[in-house]
Write a structure and sequence with these properties.
Layout (H helix, E strand, L loop, with lengths): L1 H14 L3 H17 L4 H8 L2 E5 L4 E5 H27 L5 H25 L17 H10 L6 H25 L6 H19 L6 H15 L7 H9 L10 H25 L6 H5 L4 H27 L11 H10 L4 H11 L3 H38 L1
Amino acid sequence: MSKLINLRTFKEFFESSTGGGIILFICVVLALIIANSPLGEGLLTFLSTTLGFENESIQLNYSIKQWIDDGLMAIFFLLVGLEIKRELVEGELASPKKAALPIFAAIGGALLPAAIYAIFNHNADTHHGWGIPMATDIAFALAVISMLDKRVPASLKVFLAALAIVDDLLAILVIAIFYSSDLHYTYLLYAGGIFALQLAFNKFGVKNILAYIIPGIFMWYFIHHSGIHATIAGVLTAMTLPTTPDEKESPLEKLEHLLAKPVNFIIIPIFAFVNTAIVLSTDMLGGLTSPMGLGIILGLIVGKSVGILLTCWLCVKSGLSSLPEGAGWKHMFGVGLLGGIGFTMSIFVAMLSFSDALHIEEAKLAILVASLLAGTLGYTYLSALGKKNAQIDKL
C-alpha cells in the first residue's frame, strides 16, 4: 500500500506546475556545490570533452557543453515556439483585445531593463550585454506563482504565462538580430529552402510530425554554420507545425504534449546545472557591484517590475485593454517582480554577449542573485497580499 502511495505522490509531483521549478532550483544548488568542491575540476573537464565527428564536408565535433547549449536548447526553443504559435491561434494572444496587455507589458518589461543596463554600462567593455536583463524565465516564474495557489487570481497566472511567452519571442528576435556572428549566406539559403519545404508541408496538410522534425534537424545544422544561433531552428520549425483552434488535438499540440515534460524536467535542469557550475571567487563577488552586475540586478528587479506595471497602466488607462479578471494594480506589481526571474534565457544571452570568461561567470552570478531576489520578493509580496485580501473577505 505504501508503495502505491509513494508512486502516486511521485506522479503528482511530475504532473504539477511546480515540479519543474523545484528540480531546476535543486540543479542550480547542486551545480554550485559541486563546482566549488574537489569534484569541480573533474566536472569542467567532463563538460569540455568533445563528442561527434567531422570531415571535409561535415563539422559536428563539439564539447558536451556546446551540445547542451546549442543542441538540447534547440529542443527547448522548439517547445517555446510551439507555445507561442498555440497562443497566437487559440490562446491569450489570439485576439487583439486579449493579446494587447501581455504583449505591451512584455515589451515594456524588456525595454526598461535594457535601458537601465545600457545606462550603467555606457562606454564600458560590457555594454554588449544589454539583452541580458530583458528576459523572463517561464519555468521558474510559473513555478513560483503556482505555489501561491488560490492566494492569487487564476487569471493572473494566465497573464504571466502569456507575458513570459511574448517575452521569450522578443528574446529570440534579439538573439537572432543582435547576437549573431558573421553571416554565411550559403548556409542561410539552405536553411531557408528547408523552411520553405516545411511551410509547403503545412500548406498541403501533411500531419506527420516527423515530416517537420527531420528537416528541422538539417535546418539546425545549416543555421548553426550560418552565424545565427542554431536554437532559432527550433522556433522556425515550431511555426510550421499545423494546428487548429478547435478541440481536436493537432500535430502541434501533440508535439507540445510530448516535449513538455522532457524539456521541463530534463533539458532545462541539465542546462541550468551545466551553466551554473560557477567556481565562486572574491573577484567575482566584486562583479555584483560593477556596472555590469548592477545593470543586470537593477534591470531585472527594478526594470522588470516598473516596466511591466507602467505599461499595463498605460494600456488600461488608454482603453486598449483591461486588467486580468479579479486582479488589481497591487497584483500587477507582484507579477512584475516575478518577471524579474531571468535565469535560463538571461544566462543564454550572457554567454552570447561576452568573450571574456570572467565576465560570463560574473554575469551568471548576477543573474542568479537577481532571479533569487525577484522570486523571493514576488512570492512574499503576493502571498501577503493574498492573505490580506482573504482576511478582508471574512469581515
